[in-house]
Amino acid sequence: MPMTEKQKMLAGELYRPGDAELQADQAAAKAWMVRYNAALGETPAVRRNLLKERLGSVGEGTVIRPPFHCDYGYNIHLGDDVFFNFNCVILDVVEVRIGNGTQIGPAVQIYAADHPRSAEERRSGLEFGRPVVIGENVWIGGGAIILPGVTIGDDAVIGAGSVVTRDVAAGTTVVGNPARSR
């Protein structure tokens, strides 16, 4: 039996993002974001319950300050005591996992969505994703960008404004564009 476009997307294979099922999932995510982002003045408990409605998993004590944007939401898995400051974006066409105690500054962008390198494949409208894994107790400074397929080890520090194009070892500090060890 052939895979659906959603199954292909979740498996990290080339898929068509215009598929009706995926468009319906994105519409549901957009409706949820309208509600979540309007909840800035609500209590942390109310916002936490909203997070649990849409995200794949949400650990205890996790906080995301609105506004927050994502593609689907259900591919995002957050450990305990994860903190996102204002205006973060996660393109979650495949899993994005963030470990316990990780702190993420304002305007950080995490991209699991990717595009073919071949111009012909891009013209066809196909896309794919590569999972992003961020370990425990990581600090990501404001405005950083994490690219598809990157793994960041426990206790790492990503400097503000850095563009992380490669895996970052545990306990390492990286800065710049592209991000490199200090």
Give structural notes.
One of its GO terms (cellular component) is cytosol. Keywords: Acyltransferase, Nodulation, Repeat, Transferase. GO terms for molecular function: acetyltransferase activity; O-acyltransferase activity. It is globular and about 40 Å long. It has helices at residues 5-10, 20-37, 44-54, 119-123; strands spanning 57-58, 63-64, 68-70, 76-78, 83-84, 88-91, 96-98, 103-104, 109-111, 113-114, 128-129, 132-134, 139-140, 145-146, 151-152, 157-158, 163-164, 173-175, 180-181. The longest helix has 18 residues, at 20-37. The protein has a single domain (5-181), classed as Hexapeptide repeat proteins (UDP N-Acetylglucosamine Acyltransferase, domain 1), CATH 2.160.10.10. The N and C termini lie far apart (50 Å). The strands form 4 sheets. The protein has a 7-stranded mixed sheet with strand order 2-5-8-13-16-18-19. The protein has 182 residues and is an alpha/beta fold. A hairpin with a 4-residue loop joins strand 18 and strand 19 (180-181). It is built from 4 helices and 19 strands.
Short description:
This is Nodulation protein L. The protein is an alpha/beta fold and 182 residues long.
Give structural attributes.
single chain; 182 residues; alpha/beta; UDP N-Acetylglucosamine Acyltransferase, domain 1; seven-stranded mixed sheet; globular
